[in-house]
Amino acid sequence: MTLPPDQVSVRAPAKINLQLRVGAPRSDGFHPLATVYQAVGLYDDLTVREAAEWSVSLAGDEWVDLSAVPDTGENIAIRAGRALAAYHGLERSARIEIRKGIPVAGGMAGGSADAAAALVALDRLWDLRTSDHDLLALAATLGSDVPFALVGGTAVGSGRGELVEPLTDHGEWWWVCRFSQEGLSTPKMYADYDRDVPCPPEPVIEEALLDALAGGDAEDLADALGNDLQAVAFARRPDLAAAADDGLDAGAVAALLSGSGPTVLFLCRNADHARTVAGEMIARGHDRVAAVPAPVAGAHVLPKEPKL
Length: 308
Ligand code: ATP
Known about the structure:
Elements: E1 7-22, E2 33-51, E3 55-60, H1 76-87, E4 93-100, H2 110-125, H3 132-142, H4 146-151, E5 154-158, E6 163-166, E7 173-178, H5 186-196, H6 207-215, H7 218-224, E8 226-227, H8 230-236, H9 238-249, E9 254-257, E10 264-268, H10 271-283, E11 289-294, E12 300-301
Parallel strand pairs: 1-8, 3-4
Antiparallel strand pairs: 1-2, 1-12, 2-4, 2-5, 5-6, 7-10, 7-11, 9-10
Helix pairs in contact: 1-2, 1-3, 6-7, 8-9
The protein binds adenosine-5'-triphosphate (ATP).
């Protein structure tokens, strides 16, 4: 008989949107989306232990601003834990440690990664064996990007983004992420979009993107990238448009706003090229940059460190 573990650590990735197509708001206020998500090698790690009450502690890489992340029951990791416990009719709680490598409010769904990580970690800690179907359904109640953080890889997202369907992706992609200290409000981005594009077409993913992913060629992928929120974000924040130009001048194959921003992404040809572009960006005064591979796995349990 194996004893249940006394702690479980889970790693969950950031996401980017290779295409983000936004329709007109529905009657419930949500915008229908057609998107292709890709999980990138930038992670939050989360560790859970059984405890008498819910609590969360936060740590993070130097560029991650933790001041906007609640350390109360408002934290989405605790909300995920409560939802899982309630689903199984349990009255249990846990202490959750989060180490954030994903920038906060960066358009890379760091909170969603934490929610997905909490679901996977607590499911293992409590030996609940929740089915994938039910875990995805619970994830969707927590946020539009949470199901994708469970699935990872590359996937089509529809509905509000919560309905995910894995995609064939033969690429070994490399991205340079250029983070921004100043945030960009997601509701404002959507409000600007509704004003500037009052009658958007039904959101659909273009076939060329699916072909580019299956083909694995960076130039083809560059031609197929697109984010409907990019124009409004760059209009509100000319510094982001300037950063995009800097990355293209530095030799990136394409520049793309990440989700609703403000992170700007640069597609590169391979790891060496990504390091060169990142170095060039730093030389131009963009001090918060990271070169990351994609696609990577969704939320997954980390092996226990061996006891020495
Ligand atoms: P998206 O791309 O899904 O719009 P984002 O990457 O822009 O998300 P997040 O980092 O997910 O933004 O956080 C958005 C807000 O959620 C934060 O400003 C914070 O107030 C709240 N929040 C709650 N829990 C967390 C968490 N564990 N990590 C980060 N933010 C959290």
